[in-house]
Structures are given as structure tokens and as C-alpha cells.
Specification:
The chain crosses the membrane at residues 6-21. Keywords: Membrane, Transmembrane, Transmembrane helix. By secondary structure, the chain is mainly α. Helices cover 73% and strands 0% of the residues. The protein has 2 helices and no strands. 0% of the residues are buried.
């Protein structure tokens, strides 16, 4: 019977999460945009590497 105290909140939170997911219309990320950002990160990382770590 004590398992109900753990199961009921999980079901309620899961239901709320599914509701908001459908309401907001979440979609998978755009892979083209991610590829562009990855290129920017790689370029910036190469420019900022000086061989020593600044603390």
C-alpha cells in the first residue's frame, strides 16, 4: 500500500509532462542548425587554445 505514495506522484507528473509536450508542439532539433553551430564552436576552440589553461 505504501507503493501508492510513490506511484501516484510519478503518474501525475508524467501526465503533466505529456500534456505540456503536446501543447507546446515540441519537435526534434533542426540538424542543419546544429551542424552550423558545431562549426562555429570548432573554429572558436581553435582560436582560443594557447597551450595553457587560464584560471
Amino acid at each position: 500500500m505504501i507503493w501508492l505514495y510513490f506511484l501516484i506522484p510519478v503518474v501525475i507528473i508524467g501526465g503533466i509532462a505529456i500534456y505540456f509536450e503536446k501543447k507546446s508542439g515540441m519537435t526534434p532539433p533542426d540538424e542543419n542548425k546544429q551542424a552550423e553551430k558545431l562549426g562555429e564552436v570548432i573554429n572558436l576552440k581553435g582560436n582560443n587554445s594557447s597551450g595553457t589553461e587560464n584560471v
